[in-house]
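Input record (one chain):
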Amino acid sequence: MIQITLRAARVNLGLTLKEAAKEFGIHHETLAKYELDSTNVPRTFFTQIESVYGIPNDYIFFGKQSKMQKPLVLKHA
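The corresponding structure, as predicted from the sequence alone:
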């Protein structure tokens, strides 16, 4: 299964950090922290992700953004 980061989910919708934070009812700096490390997001935030971003939680990578595996790039011979 392919997963994307919280930041990618937001950017894919064309939302700024402030716009998305407003949808979640949190400060934009809090959302920025969640995007960098979503390991321990509060349950209230977790339950809002699908309705705000329109993506099931199964497709969101929860963890440190720096630990997200980069997709392999295949080079043509």
